[in-house]
Amino acid sequence: MREKLVKNLFAVIIILLVITGGAVAKADAVMKESKDDSFSAEFPADVKEESFTYSGSEGIGYKYFAFLDGTSFYAFSYPKADVPQAGGTDSVSPWFVETIAQTEKVFEEFTVKTDVKQLGVFKVTFAQIIERPGESRTGVHRIMNVVVGDRLLSFRVVNRLGDDPKAGDRFFESIRVGAERSALLPKGSIPKVKKQIETDRNNGSGRGSGAGSGSGAGNGTGTENSTPSKGESRELKILSIGTTKYTTLGRYYRISGDVLLRVTFGSDGEISAITPVKGLAFGLTESAITTARNIDFEPKVENGKPVSSTKVVTFTFGL
Length: 319
Description:
The chain has 319 residues and is of the alpha+beta class. Helices cover 18% and strands 35% of the residues. The chain has 5 helices and 18 strands. A hairpin with a 5-residue loop joins strand 13 and strand 14. The longest helix has 19 residues, at 2-20.
């Protein structure tokens, strides 16, 4: 009797899968309309939304993000107003300058393949970045940029080399732009992921998640009586922590938040071990580790002798 019930249940599940045609697998897909009404796109999971501004420039930018099965999906909408036409004399929007500067920095640092296509009335720029060419599971970034009205739109999919590109293809193909929500990409127009990119002077070359601009580590000052006296006990004393630096990709994707590191402060005044407790993507955890290695401190003292101690230290990234 029990075996018959199991067989019947299995048959019902098969029938449901056939009837739905795979719709169950897409049940969590989210169709997102941008707040500025410039596009809509289907994300494969719940979408996190952020807004941001640039000092001294009018307008609001928007970032949309979803993550599923090791793949990250991004959509950015930047104000593009005030960009002059050819031969114009108007000042260029700080939004446009900042966005283009970030893109150029990424393209200069990494191995990039670009492909520009005229799709109807839209000029679409595709780009593919391989973070560390030669590594089998390195990060791959597929980027699509297009100007729609007075907005500069950037859609990005990030996963690992060798991952199935179909999820990214579905995301790009779902994009609709403008007030009419025109389909942007005809079938077969998305460039295929290439496992090896040949570079030239126009495409640039590079590797890794290098550190972006930012202030360097600050200088700390010690106490006059840093040598412990006999029988003295005191807690670990951190004198200074340098400023963490953004990586190029961390800034490009507007990643913000905290990196938590468990740091072992040696009895000899040197950092002896660092273990991530909570990290951030695109090299920001590694940037925090680099800063942690240079922390200036006085070790914990017990009964007049320096001893090693461990403390969780927070490094904050924000734009």
